[in-house]
Amino acid sequence: MPMIEVDPRVANRGWHVRDLLPAELGSDAVRGLMHLACGFEGARLDAVIREELPALTVTAVVPASGLSDSAPGPTSDALPIALAAFRSDGSDGSPAVIEYLATAPRHQHEGLASLLIDEVRRRHPKAAVIAETDDDAIGFYRTLGFADEPATDPRWPDTPRYRCTLAPAGC
Q: Does residue 167 sit in helix, strand or coil?
């Protein structure tokens, strides 16, 4: 199982960052986080999980064994408490695009979403990081140094959206 140790502030809190395995994408924990990330329910949420997540890299923060909100699943040490689902073709200069980002409510404001964005940057240091968001999270992205501009997204046609861009590390 891929396990990426992160900086000491994370290890000291008993967290690990790792990619989720395909078998974990249908878990209740992932379903709950994806509902928070996109606001979809029922068949629409099922379709996102079934059709979109397998094509993305899904990186999660998981508590160390024994600290999970639920019992560990068969393929993981613990269930995710935050996730980022992103895509990047891996080429220099190609952006890393965060499609979904969410943190379980009881773990919000603990720096987990920032940690996941840091992980995307660590993996793709020469790439800009791009995310689209709405009024609820635009302040979060601005605090992290993302520049933003108005955007539209067919998934949320009636919601004001923003395209947020974080320049490559070192720029």
A: coil
